[in-house]
Structures are given as structure tokens and as C-alpha cells.
Amino acid sequence: MRIYFTFEPRLELREPLVEEFPQVDFVFESSLSTEELQKADVLVTYGEDLNEDILQYATKLKWIFVASAGVEKMPAQAIADREILVSNVRGIHKTPMAESMLAHILAIKRALPWMYEQQKKSEWSKKGKQTELRDSTALILGPGAIGSEVGRLLQAFGVATIGCNRSGKEAPYMDVMVSFDKLLEALPKADIVISVLPKTTETTHLWNEEHFKVMKNNAIFMNFGRGNLVDEKVLIQAIKADEIGYAVLDVFEQEPLAANSPLWTLPNVIVSPHISSHSSRYVERSLNIFKPSLIKWLNGDIDLENIMDLSRGY
After folding, report:
1. Where in the sequence is the domain holding 103, given as residue range(s)?
2. Which long-range contacts (CB under 8 A, 24 or more apart) does 69-72 make?
């Protein structure tokens, strides 16, 4: 059994893995090489280094473990045609991402960006527009592991939570649930809108001009799912028209965000370069999901954690 990592975990994480599975031949590299891929039975990757041309070299490959939640950059049809099992690390992002979202919300509510600007100018002023988070309402698009965790934290601050998904089916830490077709009815109640939706055909440009127009004009719009949710021209127009109060964006239609994009310089916009999930514990948590699945795999059990349906994108 040969397992090929296209990234190198820290030594203190790598050594216990090798010791725990002496029957496995592990290969750790900092990038993907076709030579090693030809020998691999299992591939461990972040998912961005694999394409259809490269996949043809993976003649022995039976399982791909993706140390990421999204697979939109992977050759889904080619992998499905080869009947290669794919699993991922769904769930490990909830702590750093929920903390990132809460940090941005509190920063805006308590006028921290304004304070930082005052400090740069050495100006003593008490004119910052500070508001409270308590008694706000947050609408969370995609209340899965990440959305439910941010819902839990927001409820602890006295925030009412509305979850929104395709079916309207109940989700943890949501006071109310609505389906996508009821979204326009729920939006006027929201002080904060947070999207953690995956990239699928259904979510592409799900959000449009009408959604911005029914929002409170002081609401915070946050996209931490995928950039396909909204056409950036529509988003920019909504910001310029003062249809929302703030936009906090961790994902974009094209990444990296072009240097000439108006989003860099528009007031009341925070650009986060797709780093909300970053954490010093990221690989540690990934391996905590990989190891139990590897034990199953070695015992001939393919009922692994977080098996993905590539046709649906998650």
C-alpha cells in the first residue's frame, strides 16, 4: 500500500502517522509529480493540483483524500469514470471559520476598522459609530457544520438565527429555518447575512439584485462559501447604491482578486484573501479524519468518513 501526500505535514505530525501504520509506504512531497502518482494507491491532496491530464498517470489510484472541503477544481467526471473513491475533511473548518466570521462582525459592530484608521492618523476621536451585536438577527445560508457553529456562537451573543437551505430542513442552532424559495421573505429581518454555501450549479448566482434590494441598508453581507454565489458586478452595484451597510468577502468569482477590482477600494468592504479557514491546527485536524478512514480502508471497509458525491460538488 503506497500513500502519496502532495504536501508535507510538519514533522511532529508526520512521524506519528508513519509509526502508526508501519504496513504503509508513505511518500511526502511538496507538490505533485506524475512519477509518484503512477505508484500511488491512495492520494492525499488539497485538490488543486490534480487535473484530467495528470489523472491519467494514476493507474493504481483507488482513493483520493482531499484535505479541503471544496472539490470544484478537481476533474470530477474523470474521477467518477474511474470509480475512484473521494472523501474530504468536511467539518474541520468550522472552528477557524466561525471565529473569523465572529471577529469580522464584532470588529464592524464595535467600529474597530475606524479606530485603526484614527490611530494611523494619531487622531483622538470619540465619534465612531459603535453598535451592539445583541438582539440582532443573522440569516445563515448553508447551516451545515460551519454555518451551525457560527450560529452557536452568535446565539451566545443574544443573536436570533435564521437558517436557509434548499429544503428548509431543521439545522442545529437555528431558531427558524426557511428554504431557498422563502429567502426573499426572510431577508428584510436580517441584520447580518452569512453565506457558507458550496459551489454547485444551483448556488451559482443564486443571489441577485432583488435580494440586495430587500435587505436592510445597514445590514452586513458576508460571503465565506464560494464566490459563485453572486455576480460581482451586482455586488459592487449594491454597495455603491448603499443597499447594504458592509460587505465582508472571503471568496470571489476569480481568485486571486484582480488588483484593479473596485472591491479593494470601496468603502465598507473588507477583502479577506480566502484565508478564513487557515489555522495552525489545520493539518492536525485533517489527519484526525484521515487516520480512522485509513484504518477502515486497510481492513477492506470503504464506508469512510465524508465520502463525496462529485456530481453534486460536496
Report:
1. 94-271
2. 69/93, 69/198, 69/277, 69/314, 70/198, 70/199, 70/226, 70/313, 70/314, 71/47, 71/308, 71/310, 71/313, 71/314, 72/199, 72/226, 72/313
